[in-house]
Amino acid sequence: MMTRLVKLTLKPEHLNDFIAHFDTVKEKINAFPGCKGMRLIQDKNNIGVIFTYSEWETDDDLENYRKSELFASIWPTVKSWFDKKAEAWSTETYFDGFSLKND
Description:
Blueprint: E1 2-9, H1 15-30, E2 35-42, E3 49-56, H2 59-66, H3 69-79, E4 87-91, H4 97-102
Antiparallel strand pairs: 1-3, 1-4, 2-3
Helix pairs in contact: 1-3
């Protein structure tokens, strides 16, 4: 499994646009083949900073999403609302305390 973290810094005037657009695509992203689930997380001190947290079965599954028509329909729209370039990390889990709590 691979976890993808993406930091998006939005222009303040486009925060509501982003949330509204996200609401139209979140279930499609979440249901994409290989996606184990995703979260949208907002910084409590700077509401213009948004993170996506997604878990993928394999690196190839994420790459298939990034090359998909779905991604191509989302990214150009939201990219124009960024105040800074997006930052992204693909990670592997070293320790998962959440799984211990859920058992």
